[in-house]
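# step 3/5: fold
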Amino acid sequence: IIDAWVNHDTIGVAGPASSGKTFTAAMCAYAEFYTKPRGTTIMMSSITLQGLKLRVWGAIVEIITRVQERR
């Protein structure tokens, strides 16, 4: 995921459960937005809205919390 994120404008990720897709993509999205907040758009999806809130947004919140704790 990280290699694709660095080398391509658009990526798609598929894989088995519990393989780190969500957290890795969330970390890349956070890093992208943190370094270039103006003009950056991040689109992430999940099968259901509940899954999106629980997994994807949950990972983003976890990353932000960890970053703030290190300051």
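# step 4/5: annotate
The chain has a mean pLDDT of 90.
# step 5/5: archive (pending)
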